[in-house]
Amino acid sequence: MTGGDIIEAVVKSLIIIVALLTAFAYMTLYERRILGRMQLRSGPNRVGPAGLLQPVADGVKLAFKQAITPRGVDKPLYLLAPAISVVTALSAFAVIPVGPTYNIFGRAIPFHLADFNVGLLFVLAMGSLGAYGIVLAGYASNNKYSLLGGLRAAAQLISYELALGLSLVGILMISGSLSLTAIVEGQARGLWYILVQPLAFVIYLISAIAETNRAPFDLVEAEQELVGGYHTEYTGLRFALFFMAEYINMVTVSALAATLFLGGWHGPFDLLSGPWWLLAKIILILTLYVVLRATLPRLRYDQLMRLGWHWLLPLALLNVVLTAIGITLLQ
Amino acid sequence: MASFLHGLRAYAKGFATTLGSAFKKPITVQYPEYKTPVQTRFRGKHMLMRYDNGLERCIGCSLCAIFCPAQAIYVEAAENTDDNRRSPGERYAERYEINMIRCIYCGYCQEACPTEAIVLGHEYAFSDYTREALIYTKDMLLVPDPRKATVGAGAD
Questions:
Q1: Residues of B with CB below 8 A from A39's CB?
Q2: Which of A271, B8, B67, B108 reaches 20 to 30 Å from A211, CA-CA?
Q3: Which CATH class is domain B46-147?
Q4: Burial class (CB in 10 A: 0-12, 13-18, 19+), A68
Q5: C-alpha angle A270/A276/A279, rounded to 5°?
Q6: Please, what is the Cα angle at A289 between A286 and A291, to 5 degrees?
Q7: Is B68 marked as binding a ligand?
């Protein structure tokens, strides 16, 4: 590894982190505006033109809040939990290919931070590790609502991780690689995998929403029954970190969906260059997230479990079998 | 199967509602810039009225203060004299104070008043930072003299 490689990696990491934090900030605004419109309101439109500075105002407000550490918490874990959430959320994005290889400053720069041969596995692993942040926060908070939220997170993770992983097996069978770059290139040569694997796409989306604890699967923080769930006892910037992790996870999961099913940074025509195509696809999926949140009521705990084990898991297995039959017949 | 289809229909209806609403105009009124007009019988900030010749209608009888369920009104009357004639009656209100944060805007003072001196107007945005500032005195409640009033000033 030369000095140039190290500089390149550092610069790319910084760009990814800054981009993800900006995405987090503006995703909150985007979500609130869209939710508002769906409820015949206009959403936040006061701070700056069209409310564009609202995330800044929110951030400043949270930064100036008192950081309360309640009595009786397991302090090391209590402080570690938000950090785990954010670090895993940020690092999962590292393997997502944002664009093809461009020539900048006389260097061939591939537009992804890392392309290892188990990239997909890495994203899934980081997603699962992120659940530790939530579980530990619930455990360390010395609050029964937090604990319930944390327990639900663990149960939800186990139920939906299986379906999530299995829904991607079909893609691996077709592309023959776990490297995300190879998967994108595979789609560029042939059809987008959403056309080949529509069932897997639906299963992936549902499981991904459950994985990121978003409505209608937000039992982990269900305000009406659990106060705030795992982040009940967190204030100020620590609370903001959990929020950050949640939104960055949404972005990552959407980016993964775009990469695996919607052709990644490839577009049907060359109007937009690579990264912009990916961005457009990510925004499309994030909009779907918001529409789902606006429309669907939260599932009950037993309904959540039934959906996971009785529907998604068998369907994902069926998908694997069908893919195997398809591949054999086509060969 | 029938229940499955029923569920699908319910989902379709839900998404049609949210997606449909997203393209409608929000019903929000952008308040400080636009205000919804109040009803004609709206009960807002009180006004002490005058006759057309500029004399105060209030004769300092304190009936409003007696009727006030919140005991928000304080009246102190004084005798009219020939060189200092403030109202057509024998007496006028020397002091007239309303505690705007005790007041429940029920309008009983308006109904009790024999001379229609106190009227609840249409103004409703008069918040302040201290309790003292919200005890309104007579000069804050009294409408301007119509003979001295410039164009556009005065009660609505």
A1: 21
A2: B8
A3: alpha beta
A4: exposed
A5: 135
A6: 115
A7: yes
Calculate how close chain B gets to A27, using CA atoms only, in Å: 17
User: For the purposes of burial, counting CB atoms within 10 Å of the CB of A21, is it exposed (0-12), middle (13-18) or buried (19 or more)?
Assistant: middle
Average pLDDT, chain A: 85
Cross-strand bridge partners of residue A110: A101
CA-wise closest residue to A213 among A91, A299, A313, A92: A299
The pTM score is 0.80
CA angle A133, A138, A141 (to 5 degrees): 110
Across the interface, which of B14, B17, B22 has its CB nearest the CB of A34?
B22
The helix/strand/coil state of A112 is coil
Q: Half-sphere exposure (CA, 13 Å, Cβ side) for A272?
A: 15
What angle do the packed helices A313-330 and A144-175 form, to 10 degrees? Answer: 10
Residue-wise DSSP of A198-233: HHHHHHHHHHHHHHTT-TTS-TTT-HHHHTTGGGTT
Contact A40 B27 (CB under 8 A): yes
The total of structural domains in chain A comes to 1
Quick one: pLDDT band at residue B153, thresholds 50, 70, 90? very low
How high is the pLDDT of residue B85?
A: 86
Task: State how far the alpha carbon of A164 is from the alpha carbons of A9, A157, A247, B72, in Å.
Answer: 30, 10, 19, 66
User: Could you tell me which of A67, A224, A203, A53 has the C-alpha nearest to residue A149?
Assistant: A224
Residues 6+ apart with CB under 8 A from A247: A23, A24, A27, A28
Nearest to A41 among B11, B23, B26 (CB): B26
- Identify the domain containing residue A231 by its residue range: 3-330
Q: Averaged in consecutive runs of 10 residues, what is the pLDDT profile of chain A (331 residues)? A: 79 87 90 90 86 89 87 86 89 82 72 77 86 86 85 84 88 83 79 83 90 82 75 84 89 89 76 77 90 88 87 91 88 78
B72 belongs to an annotated ligand binding site = no
Helix (H, G, I), strand (E, B) or coil at A110: strand
Q: What share of chain A has pLDDT > 70, as a percent?
A: 98
CB contact under 8 A, A291 and B28: no
Where residue B148 falls (left for φ over 0; alpha for ψ -120 to 50; beta otherwise) is alpha
B24 and A CB contact within 8 Å = yes
The domain limits of chain B are 46-147
